[in-house]
Amino acid sequence: MKKVALIHGWGGSYSATWQADGWDAALRAKGFTPVGVDIAGHGAAGGSHLSADYADLASDLALKLPSDLYGAIGFSLGTKLLLELEARNPGANGRLVLGGIGDNLFAPEQVGPTLVAALRGDLTEHPPQVAALLAYAGKSGSDPACLAAVLERPANPVLTEARLATAQAPILIFNSTEDAVAQPDARLRAALPAAEHQLIDGTGHVGLTSDARFRDAAIAFLNQT
After folding, report:
1. Cut 0.90: pTM above it
2. pLDDT tens per residue across span 41-52
3. How far apart are CA 69 and CA 85, in angstroms?
4. What is the CATH number of domain 2-222?
5. Pairwise CA distance, residues 173 & 196, whole Å
6. In angstroms, rounded to a whole number, what is the distance separating the alpha carbons of residues 218 and 99?
7. What are the b/e assignments for 197-217, b being 16+ CB within 10 Å?
8. Half-sphere exposure (CA, 13 Å, Cβ side) for 122?
9. What pLDDT score was predicted for residue 125?
10. pLDDT digit string (tens) for 101-132?
11. What is the DSSP string of 27-44?
12. Where are the domains of the chain?
């Protein structure tokens, strides 16, 4: 069976994102073996409350991935980490499906301070984007103190066009026009000129993994030869 890793976004978990949205079952039905991974500080296992302990999320992720992956599917923060690993070791994780990522890859996480304040109870009124991310995080059962520490970590991953130019994996970038986090994505597409790109209407950032169009496109891309 072909192993495919599924890497969630900030605030998520394997079970709350991929399993809950039907990816696990859909991949198995097409002959793939899903590999469930939680990013450090996420999920029921919890983690450190110290931001310094999240100074290299990609290395932590690499230790959790099998060496014989056929491919990997990421969402948001998960896509950033997959691209970091691709820059370090081109082609090592097979075919890559990158959802919910755009030119924000090259910028600091803009809503981070507001999210931290909300997680710590210092913010009573939540802007729509923050409210959506908090709702997404609430489904994962993650410790809010861990999630705040992840947001306050030393900046990582830090990716540039020069580092992305080393990418060798077949890549699909999949986004939504309504995704205020990942749009625009022209700079990322220019940095990965060989990547396929699909853009759909009608789905915001946190709703992308529950959209069957994303799931179907990802499986179709994994099935390409």
Report:
1. yes
2. 999 999 999 999
3. 13
4. 3.40.50.1820
5. 6
6. 9
7. ebebeebbbbbbbebeebbeb
8. 9
9. 84
10. 999 999 988 778 899 999 998 888 888 888 98
11. HHHTTEEEEEE--TT-ST
12. 2-222
